[in-house]
């Protein structure tokens, strides 16, 4: 009779694959071996199934298809031999998962092997079940696992606990089945059982608040275990570089952090042991650093004593002095998270944090930069800005834009004098080059415009800065704006703050012409220069003819914007000379607060009706300027389906297709109105909703007359808190006025902040423009907004809200609902 040749051994296959010189050679070897393995699987009496399946698993690990071996795994699992079961279960863990129906065929074999008399076969079944369990398989075999947790065999018990961990993660409903068996596990002496038991309890507490409350009773037991670990003598079985079982210590500390969060009694119970572990842990080895890091997180995560918090911050301060850059990064990252919990303690390590700005590792420099700005206050602003400006000059290009935005915001909040403020931002513009964001230019222009007592000093200093160097676009644009507005002060030769600069009209025009003709100048800078020249015709006396000639020269420019400005300005000279002085008067002050408009990115307003469905964690897409131009009143008319009066010649833009459907998909059966315009508006749009409701709407976030406004918290998550203050309008019984106040308690700024609201279709809602779009850290500022709700049917008010913002480079979007309004608002 014919007999099959002995198949190739696994080590020979590995050697042959590794010797292949090209990918094609490797594929040829694999395909040939797969064909041989398929042939061997067809032989019912083949004695080499284990060897062939082992080779197939290696081929699978290389990324080649091996699904044809799934049924062979089941056959080996059903075998009575341990060697067959071992390779069969290994194949099942690698080749099967819950997406394939074949895995259900192994359920019966698993149940039989879970009750086997040999612990090693039970172990194989437990490992496999934990790896490939589906919802159905978990429900079928959970009872068997619960019995095995009560086993007296520690080897089986710890594997059964880990299997229960996987089942609970897959099917949280089965948690109650394991709670009674879990209670007694913390009395075990075996460290392996203790470790797995702590993992299981941690998973249960994270999944269920009720279970968390139940297991708070075991805090004293966990404290006792932790104390025994640190007080126990040397044990070779559990010692790692002189630390007794650091893995168990870390797991217990993490569980204590979960149990002690927002619970005063539990936190008080663990205060002493946390201090003991923090002071007795050896910090010369990495295992000690791991325990201390977990200690810090636990102390900051519970209601611990003030002294413990200082101790935790000091531990992180010692981490900053470590030579290992990974430990320094962990320290900076953790300090950034806990700075709001103990600001003064973190301030003590400011010098060390500043030194990290010079670190060779880019990730450490970024974290040090973020933490440095979080530590800026009135007392240290001068020294911190000096260090941060030095950092700006030498940092990587990807840092410069963020550094500039943070410098502008910090100086706005903490600058000691106006002169120092102006000098600092001018130095920032000179150092940052082309990395300053466009919105920063507008903010700095507003700052200069508001500081009227320094106009002479500012315009003269800016002129000197760009006289010899026009390679910094943002600096050039700010300087050109100031020269156009305050040109007469530039040539006046008067300066109260410093020695005056003697400049002639021709010198000023020479610099502006240089900007217009220089190849390095950006198109925006040239536009600024053109407008600045035009403004100077009403401020200079002897150079008007020269300026007019320069402007006329660009009437045929290939740059459309320059050409248009040239033609229009030339027409002012020829057709509207009598109006020229009035047209070119200094601009009025811009309304709004600068500090609330420091944005990390450009667009600051989003139209909810133009959005599609938004995945979790992603930012909403900012609408373009042409969509923002819709006025608030027209948006309200579109929402309420009101036809404009016949005398109104303005035709409203059609609503965007699909937008309303997207909104309904997102917020359910509600109708809404989005933020109508960017936060800063020169003049508010006419408020047509007032006419519909028969009253006036103030735009200053004030309540209107009723005593005792009702306050409630609409949203409180990840440091963002949104509070509502509600009151009925005195003059309109059906109208409720809601003042919205948003604050940020984290250590870093939330930029591009947008608050949106929606109500059921039986209501009408007016959402006024916000006071800003940036939430400063540490509750050091707020964004306010006014909502008016018309409730003609006097129904219970239900408000759906949506918030979005950007923090630490991450885009965050969240949705919530408020329905706890008092009935006095509509009855």
TrEMBL record:
Residues 616-630 have a biased composition (Polar residues). Residues 601-630, 642-664 are annotated as: Disordered. One of its GO terms (biological process) is vesicle-mediated transport. Its main location: membrane. The keyword Transferase does not apply. Pfam families: Adaptin_N (PF01602), Alpha_adaptinC2 (PF02883). Keywords: Cytoplasmic vesicle, Golgi apparatus, Membrane, Protein transport, Transport. It is a peripheral membrane protein. The keyword Glycoprotein does not apply. Residues 707-822 form the GAE domain. Coiled coil: none annotated. GO terms for cellular component: AP-1 adaptor complex. InterPro entries: Adaptor_Complx_Large_Subunit, AP1_complex_gsu, ARM-like, ARM-type_fold, Clathrin/coatomer_adapt-like_N, Clathrin_a/b/g-adaptin_app_Ig, Clathrin_app_Ig-like_sf, GAE_dom. It is found in: Cytoplasmic vesicle membrane; Endomembrane system; Golgi apparatus. Belongs to the adaptor complexes large subunit family. This is AP-1 complex subunit gamma. It comes from Magallana gigas (Pacific oyster).
